[in-house]
Amino acid sequence: MSWPGSACSPTPTPPCRARSTSRRPTPRRRARAGCWRPRPRPEDGTVFGRTRPGHAIVLDGDRAEDCARLHATGFPHPWDALDFERLIGAESCFGHALVETRDPRRMQGFILSRRAADEAEVLTIVVDPSNRRQGVAGRLMRANMEALLRHGVKSWFLEVGDTNAAARRLYAGLGFTEVGRRQGYYRVAGGTPATALILRRTIG
Ligand SMILES: CC(C)(COP(=O)(O)OP(=O)(O)OC[C@H]1O[C@@H](n2cnc3c(N)ncnc32)[C@H](O)[C@@H]1OP(=O)(O)O)[C@@H](O)C(=O)NCCC(=O)NCCS
């Protein structure tokens, strides 16, 4: 594609006065004149005060302990490291983590899904409390769904507590819709069991 006025465009670019001025104050000239400084970058790696740069990786068994630790921050009945080791090692399971770019040992969150033919179930997703509301879960879901899509998956299912407003909004934003309910499915410490909603997203 060529944009009007670009080098590939047949449309001649009109002469630009600013460009033809030889003493235009470029950043380098301003720096030489001592009136320009590079913009300081935040020390903690935040960008616009919101997201710590991170990237998605495929989960491997070495992260089972970290998964168990993170899982305990998000669920009242967490799974242990052995559970995660088995799941991550299973051929049908697809796991992704978002790790900090500066320190890849530090996981911001992770997701685990299981595939059966052209369907997949999201088994769990959790984001470190200090990284929530920064788009981490959205990125994890997309990375995981893209990998499953490449393996022929067309439909995704998951269960979410009807009182889990954050997760329900996350999934709604990704196009999941309710296809069923399980009354009293989740144990709640000292309370009435919560209802699970079954959500589905289909592509194609
Ligand atoms: C649910 C959870 C995974 C969301 O992770 P997250 O990284 O904070 O989510 P994101 O930043 O990607 O948010 C994506 C969207 O989800 C919704 N959302 C996320 N957290 C929310 C909150 N606390 N309140 C309302 N909406 C929320 C928003 O629509 C948000 O988009 P926006 O920020 O543009 O408004 C996280 O809160 C968590 O780990 N909870 C504990 C474990 C859990 O409940 N897992 C899901 C089990 S089904």
From TrEMBL:
InterPro entries in alphabetical order: Acyl_CoA_acyltransferase, GNAT_dom, YpeA/RimI_acetyltransf
Q: Does the keyword Nucleus apply?
A: no
The protein's superkingdom reads: Bacteria
Please note every region of biased composition (Low complexity). 1-10
SUPFAM superfamilies recorded = Acyl-CoA N-acyltransferases (Nat) (SSF55729)
Ranges of residues in domain N-acetyltransferase: 49-204
Pfam families this protein is in? Answer: Acetyltransf_1 (PF00583)
Arranged from A to Z, the UniProt key words for this protein are:
Acyltransferase, Transferase
The GO terms describing molecular function are:
acyltransferase activity, transferring groups other than amino-acyl groups
Q: Where is this region: Disordered?
A: 1-53
User: Bias category Basic residues: which stretches?
Assistant: 20-32
Family annotation (PANTHER family): ACETYLTRANSFERASE, ACETYLTRANSFERASE YPEA
Name of the protein this chain belongs to: GNAT family N-acetyltransferase
